[in-house]
Amino acid sequence: MILDHDVVVLGAGLAGMRAALEAARAGVKVAVVSKVHPVRSHSGAAQGGINAAIGKDDSWEIHAFDTIKGSDYLADQDAVEIMASEAPRDIIELEHMGVTFFRDDQGKLGTRAFGGASKARTYFVGDITGQALLYTLYDQILKAGVQIYEEWFATALYTVEGACRGAVCIDMLSGELHLLRAGAIIMASGGCGRVYEPSTNALICTGDGIALAYRVGAPLMDMEMVQYHPTTLKGSGFLMTEAARGEGAYLLNASGERFMQRYAPKMMELASRDVVSRSETIEIAEGRGVDDCVFLDLRHLGPEVVMRKLPQIHEMALDFLGIDMLTTPVPVRPGMHYIMGGIKTDATGATAMPGMYAAGECACVSVHGGNRLGANSLLDTLVFGRRSGAASANYARQVQPLTSGEDFLRSEQVRIAALLERPYEGETHARLRLELGTMMDRNVGVYRDEAGLQAALQTIQQLKQRYQHVAVGDKSRVYNQALTFVLELGYMLDIAETIVYSALTRTESRGAQSRTDFPKRNDAEWLKHVVIHSHDGQAPAIDFSPVSITKWPPQERTY
Amino acid sequence: MKWTIVVGRYDKDQPAGSGYPPPFESAAAKRYQTFEVDLPEHAMVLDALIQVREYQDESLAVRCACRSAICGSCAMWINGHANLACTSKLRDFTVDGKVTVESPPSMPPIRDLVCDMTPFWQKNRQVRPWLEGKEPVPAGEEYRVPNAAMENLIQEVGCISCGACLMDCESFAVNQNFLGPAALAKAYRYTADPRDAETRDRLKTYSEPDGVWDCTHCYECVQQCPKGVAPLEQILKLRRMAVEEGFTNNAGTRHAYAFAESVKDSGRLNELTLMPKSFGLLNIRAQLQSLPAAFNMARAGKLPPLIHKKIPGLARIKSIFAKVGGKFK
Lengths: 559, 329
Prior knowledge:
The complex is a heterodimer. By secondary structure, chain A is an alpha/beta fold. Chain A has 15 helices and 21 strands.
């Protein structure tokens, strides 16, 4: 089947739904495609909150500066200015849509403290902020009557004369492939956490949109910048929100010392994430951890604060480790959490490819640079989701409708059919994915060096060879997840390769990229973005993009 | 540790036989397949299913994403009740050496543990699940509301739409049109929101048939909800709000009144007058329609006594009513 829309949004998390809402408001025919039901999207797992400088003693300039400092001066300052200055209106708009934000004594929006921020400017709903925003936006797109194709999985983007004009998707329930044609496509498919094992990300965070865009020629930027969150639960790797530290929780080493006083005497546990994750890694490496973990201690906060403001993490520690955080510190370690890099866009969400827009974690504006501040990701999704929705609607209006596409759909059907028929030779997607993920965590994690990255590259190339022999262990048409897992693995291998190439290219330490062989930040040579392009089966091509500096020249970064 | 998991397998694309109860009996055959997995002591049912899917049988279909009770994907029947697989410990659910998981028979099946959630999403849409903001919308700033009013809603905001409540809802089992626990909890969330302008209209709609009064208080939804949303409690709050707003001309309110009146007058329930009073004394048609059920009950020995006696010490009951106040003082 071929279906026509003005704007098609791939992904129905916060960025995708915000974009769809804005495009619908602009009066164009918009559809949202998601491989899961919208409310299952991983935006719902964001716990802590969303940043905006609304308070009297705060200003968007201070917010912008904190963000830029947090980014280790790699963020584009013009884009950060837009995000920080437009943040208040987006938060207020969400409040008007019905988000049940925490209030202060006057009934106004109340805040909590968060890492890397010099003011308490994080607005929140308990420790389920992402979920509250996600459901409110879902309710809003229902109200707006936006078409939703749920449990549709994208296999390829359709390009015509260098412009992005659609996507082929598998309808999971029937197994049929359809072509969604559009004037413009918005990539809002989220992050790629599963490239690493473990990760705080859901199993669905496989970077589909990043890889699809990359394959048709859209360049990716800052892909070496992979954020390790300082507090992920031992074993499972689940996220223990930064809001815990925002509310005053301590990080302790094996001897019960608040070790952050040696690394960030001013901000302590609330230094930015790259700094805290590195400090923990050093503590553990130097033998002051327990079972490769340090401890997150909530005991002194008391049951009132924990149960009212952090109930979800209390429940998770109890469920998955049997630990009651009211009485016992919980073991945590740094774990892959977020990718600052993604599809390169400008501040309207436009990518380098005509007709393709991107927003949210799959995009790179870049507002996070080398390290994203906590509670800036939800903000990123709303501001740039809104902007890309508006810009894509505008663009789509001027595009001629298509009559072509049947051949492309047929070629995708043939490709998928062939994949399903591939004989079993001993390779499975699960084994390859595990090998990829554990290798990435080991070689391309908090600390990196040339040897480890070269080894990673070799492993990825071997895995790519073996991938050609992975069979699909399910032959049914209905809800064939084995098929989508194999396709996802292909996306993840492409992304892993771009991460490693980019990390190899940047021979300095900045933000989340800590090269032990190049331990210093090098502004003279590296105050620029690494941009990576796919290159038809050969090694990717790399070039650079300047960092926009408006008001804040790079300084030494201390917390 | 070795664990045994029995999985209800099904593929609507592979027709043959039956195995599901009506209205799905024409569907394909459902069969049970046993798997052995090796997992740690604290492992969850979902860990076992993922283990099977990755290393034993890639054709096993199961929805899951976050693995930590946030995304709401993995609600299924575990040993005959709806639960989230990701927070159900194998240890707690192993009975006679095995755990049994399957798609809940109350929902249309699709594939293995994946059921069709359309009824759930449709009900959600039916309750107008969005804020109808009060005018004027404050320009450039938030609505001023007390934090307590927001916290009152957070119980429902915590709902992850897993559908466990609907899967095991006794009222939904006999009336597919019942709005159901999750949708009505959501209805409360917007009705009780001090920023919403449509409170009265909402209460009127929710008081109609298939709405708040169709809940039978079986507490399955409270029991099965993995997030403490307690949908029944939200339904009871909606009922109270509806009655206070004067939406009393319905079987549900009359039933509640008749119930209270009978207890106040005699200290016990007069089941013979309860039905006519609930339907409305002049609603002969509805009363006639309930006759077959009455005959069946009589045949099963469930007929209430024909002579309704007052209990001793009735004055004390009346004093309770006096103390509670309101309509029955």
